[in-house]
Structure formats: C-alpha cells, structure tokens
Amino acid sequence: MRITVVTAIGGGKIDLDVDPHSTVAQLKREVAKKKKIPANTVIIVFHGKQLDDSEILKQTGMMDGDKCYLIARTKGGL
Asked: Residue ranges of the Ubiquitin-like domain (predicted)?
C-alpha cells in the first residue's frame, strides 16, 4: 500500500510503498533512512494516536492512500 508520511514540523512529506503486514518499527526504520535521522528518534502518529513499534500497520487501520505523521524526538537540556 502507498502511504504518505508528513513531517509534523516543517510539513515535508515522504510517499512510501509499504507492506500492510509490516510493523510500525519497520516503517520507522524506512522513514529514518529517508530522512537521515536515527530510527530511535522517530515517533509515528496516525489518527491522533502514537503507534507502538510492535503494531502491524494494517491492524492500526492504516489503508492505501492514508497519511500518518512523523515526529522526531530531540534531546533537550542545557
């Protein structure tokens, strides 16, 4: 299925062809590779819900043509 991952800050987007039986962790790795950021900083949000790494994309309700959102965690502090 083809989905669009929208960057929450900045609004950039990535169109991806993914297997509906892939896990969220697999999607995160693919997005991280495209954005050149560490996979452990990626959060995926779909329909207002942060998705867990172990969830299967199809079981989240994600379908062909859907959009989800990428939030990249950053380290804070002084």
From this structure: 1-77
For 54, residues 6+ apart whose C-beta sits below 8 A from its C-beta are: 23, 24, 25
**Those residues with Cβ within 8 angstroms of residue 43's Cβ, 6 or more apart along the chain or in another chain:** 50, 70, 71, 72, 73
d(CA 13, CA 69): 9
pTM of the model: 0.88
Nearest to 52 by CA among 11, 24, 27, 16: 24
User: What span, in angstroms and rounded, lies between the C-alpha atoms of 53 and 31?
Assistant: 13
**What is the reported pLDDT for 9?**
77
H/E run at residue 45: strand 42-46
pLDDT at 16 over 90: yes
Amino acid at 22: S
